[in-house]
C-alpha cells in the first residue's frame, strides 16, 4: 500500500461513523480509533516516501499518574497488546497496551506525570 | 480559607462557582469532558483538566477521575454544583477519605436527607406533615379501606412507576377498583412488578421551598421561593418570595423547616420543598445542595449564597436568624427544544438584567447534558414590576441556530393566570 493510498483510506474512514476500524492488507495493519474524532493516526510524511509507514499516537484512557515500563522505552520494538506503561488511578495500576505492533518513537510525557484523559502519551511507528 | 477548589460540574453553574471563588480569592480548577473543551467555563478557571469523554458517566460522574485530578492538582475542596455528583453520598465519602472537603453536608446526612423515603420518615418523626398516603397495597379489601381513610380525590401510584406511567387520579370510590386494575397492569408490563400505593391528590397545590444555610449548630433561613410553574415536573419559572402566603403561613412554613433540620447538625446550603394546598403545607423532599434557582433568593436576600456556601464549608458560623427578603425576583429558564441543528449562531440578551449562561455564539449544544441554556433573572420592588421587567427582558432576547422555549416563556409571563398568580403545579403550560 502506498502512502497516498493510506492517506485516501484514512480520509474516507474519517467521514464514516465507525469508532474503531482495523484493516489488514498483507503486512500492513491499520487500526483507527476515532471515538473522540481526533486524528489518532497520522500518515508519516518522512522523506522516504517509498517506504510505507504510519505513526500511531497512543492517548490516555483515564486521568492518573503515568509510570513508564522498560518495554515502552524509545526505540523499543513492541507487539500489539503489549503493556507499555501503567496509569495509577486511586492506587490502582491500569495497564496501557499498545494497540499496534511497531517501534516506540517518542514518549510525549514524563514518567510520574499527571496525565489527563485523551492526552497524547506515545508515538509509535507502525512496522510493516 | 481554601486555596484551591475543583469544580466538578460544567456550564453556567461552573461559571457561577468560579466567580464566587474569584471574589474570595480562591484558585479554581475546571474539569471538562472532551466535548466541553472549548467551553467558556474552562477558560475562566485558573487550571483545567480533561477528565473523560462526553457521556457524563465517563466524565462528570467519574468519581475516580475527579479525585485523581483533585489530589494531584492539590485542591482543598470540591464543589459539585447541582445535578451530577452533588447528592452522591459515596462521592462525599470518597472526598473525605482523600482529605478533600466536599462542599455540602457530610455523606451520612446526604443519605438521610436527600433520600425521598428516609426524609419522609424523618419528617413524620419530627412532626412535619407529609402528603397522606398508604403503604404498599396487595389486596382489594385493603385498597378500599385505605382509600376511605385518605379521602378522595387520590392518586394510585405504581411502586416502581415514573415518567407519567403507572399513575391514575381517582375522583370517587366507584372508580377505585378499575383504576387499581389499570395501574397494576401498566406496572406489570412496564416495571415488572405490580405493587402500588395510594396518595392524597392535592388540589391546586403550589410548590413552595425554603432556602437554608447551616453551620452544623445554627440554621439560617434565607427566605422562600415559589416554583409552581413546572413542565413535566421540571421547574420553568421560579420566584422569591412566594406571594400567596400570609405572614402567619410563612412563619408556620419556617417553623416546619426548622423542626425538620435544626437537630441534624447540617452544614451547607439546603432546600426544603413543600406542597401548599388548601392552606396546608406538606413536606415533599429536601435537596442537600446548591439549586438552579438560587439566583432569585440572592436577589431578594441580597447575599451571594455561593460565597456563603463556601464560607460555611470552611467553618464560618451563621446565626439562627431568618433573613429578610426585599422586593420580588423572578427567574425564567431558557431551555433547548428538540431541533435538528445544534450550533448557536445568535445569542443576544439584554445587559441591564442578570443572565446566567455557560454558552456563547459558536457553541454546539451537546446532547449528552441537560438542555438549560440560560437563566434570566429580574428583580423589582413588587411582583407586578418584576413581571413588567421580565416581559421586556424576554422581548430583547434573540437566539438563532437552535430551538428554544422562548415563545412559551413569553406566553406564560403575559398570561392572566401568571399575572394574577393563580398558577399551580398542575397548570397547563
From TrEMBL, chain A:
Please give the InterPro entries that the UniProt record associates with this protein.
Biotin_Carboxyl_Carrier/Decarb, Biotin_lipoyl, Single_hybrid_motif
Q: Which CDD domains match?
A: biotinyl_domain (cd06850)
Highest taxon listed in the record's lineage = Bacteria
Q: Does Ribosomal protein count among this protein's keywords?
A: no
Question: Domain Lipoyl-binding, which positions?
Answer: 55-125
Determine if Lipid metabolism is one of this entry's keywords: no
Q: Report keywords, A-Z.
A: Biotin
What name does UniProt use for this protein? Lipoyl-binding domain-containing protein
The major lineage groups are: Bacteria, Bacillati, Bacillota, Bacilli, Lactobacillales
Amino acid at each position: 500500500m502506498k502512502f497516498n493510498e493510506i492517506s485516501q483510506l484514512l480520509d474516507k474512514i474519517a467521514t464514516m461513523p465507525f469508532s474503531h476500524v482495523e484493516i489488514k492488507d498483507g503486512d500492513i495493519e491499520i487500526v483507527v480509533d476515532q471515538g473522540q474524532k481526533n486524528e489518532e493516526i497520522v500518515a508519516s510524511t518522512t522523506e522516504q516516501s517509498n517506504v510505507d509507514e504510519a505513526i500511531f499516537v497512543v492517548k490516555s484512557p483515564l486521568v492518573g499518574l503515568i509510570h513508564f515500563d522498560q518495554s515502552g522505552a524509545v526505540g523499543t520494538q513492541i507487539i500489539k497488546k503489549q503493556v507499555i506503561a501503567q496509569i495509577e488511578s486511586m492506587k490502582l495500576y491500569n495497564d496501557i497496551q499498545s494497540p499496534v505492533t511497531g517501534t516506540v518513537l517518542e514518549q510525549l510525557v514524563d514518567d510520574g506525570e499527571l496525565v489527563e484523559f485523551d492526552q497524547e502519551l506515545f508515538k509509535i511507528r507502525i512496522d510493516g | 480559607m481554601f486555596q484551591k477548589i475543583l469544580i466538578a460540574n460544567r456550564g453556567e453553574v461552573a461559571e457561577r462557582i468560579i466567580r464566587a471563588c474569584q471574589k474570595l480569592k480562591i484558585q479554581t480548577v475546571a474539569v471538562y469532558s472532551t466535548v466541553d473543551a472549548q467551553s467558556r467555563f474552562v477558560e475562566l478557571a485558573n487550571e483545567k483538566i480533561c477528565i473523560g469523554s462526553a457521556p457524563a458517566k465517563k466524565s462528570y460522574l467519574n468519581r475516580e477521575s475527579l479525585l485523581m485530578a483533585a489530589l494531584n492538582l492539590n485542591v482543598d475542596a470540591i464543589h459539585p454544583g447541582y445535578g451530577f455528583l452533588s447528592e452522591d453520598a459515596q462521592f462525599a465519602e470518597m472526598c473525605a477519605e482523600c482529605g478533600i472537603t466536599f462542599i455540602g453536608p457530610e455523606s451520612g446526612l446526604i443519605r438521610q436527607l436527600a433520600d425521598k423515603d428516609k426524609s419522609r420518615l424523618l419528617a413524620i418523626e419530627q412532626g412535619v406533615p407529609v402528603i397522606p398516603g398508604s403503604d404498599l397495597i396487595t389486596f382489594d379489601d385493603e385498597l378500599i379501606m385505605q382509600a376511605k381513610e385518605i379521602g378522595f380525590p387520590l392518586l394510585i401510584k405504581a411502586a416502581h412507576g415514573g415518567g407519567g406511567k403507572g399513575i391514575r387520579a381517582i375522583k370517587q370510590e366507584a372508580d377505585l377498583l378499575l383504576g387499581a386494575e389499570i395501574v397494576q397492569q401498566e406496572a406489570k408490563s412496564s416495571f415488572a412488578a405490580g405493587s402500588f400505593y395510594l396518595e392524597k391528590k392535592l388540589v391546586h397545590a403550589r410548590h413552595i421551598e425554603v432556602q437554608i444555610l447551616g453551620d452544623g449548630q445554627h440554621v439560617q433561613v434565607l427566605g422562600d421561593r415559589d416554583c409552581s410553574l413546572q413542565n413535566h415536573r421540571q421547574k420553568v419559572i421560579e420566584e422569591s418570595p412566594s406571594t400567596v402566603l400570609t405572614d402567619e403561613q410563612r412563619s408556620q412554613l419556617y417553623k416546619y423547616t426548622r423542626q425538620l433540620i435544626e437537630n441534624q447538625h447540617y452544614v451547607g446550603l439546603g432546600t426544603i420543598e413543600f406542597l401548599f394546598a388548601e392552606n396546608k403545607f406538606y413536606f415533599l423532599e429536601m435537596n442537600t445542595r446548591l439549586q438552579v434557582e438560587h439566583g432569585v433568593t440572592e436577589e431578594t436576600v441580597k447575599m451571594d449564597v455561593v460565597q456563603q456556601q463556601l464560607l460555611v464549608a470552611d467553618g464560618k458560623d451563621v446565626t439562627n436568624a431568618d433573613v429578610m427578603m426585599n422586593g420580588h425576583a423572578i427567574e425564567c429558564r431558557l431551555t433547548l427544544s428538540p431541533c435538528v441543528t445544534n450550533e448557536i449562531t445568535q445569542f443576544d440578551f439584554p445587559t441591564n438584567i442578570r443572565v446566567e449562561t455557560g454558552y456563547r455564539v459558536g457553541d454546539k449544544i451537546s446532547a449528552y447534558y441537560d438542555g438549560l441554556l440560560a437563566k434570566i433573572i429580574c428583580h423589582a420592588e413588587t411582583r407586578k414590576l418584576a413581571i413588567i421587567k421580565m416581559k421586556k427582558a424576554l422581548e430583547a432576547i434573540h437566539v438563532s441556530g437552535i430551538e428554544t422555549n422562548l415563545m412559551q416563556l413569553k406566553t406564560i409571563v403575559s398570561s392572566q393566570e401568571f399575572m394574577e398568580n393563580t398558577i399551580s403545579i398542575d397548570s397547563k403550560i
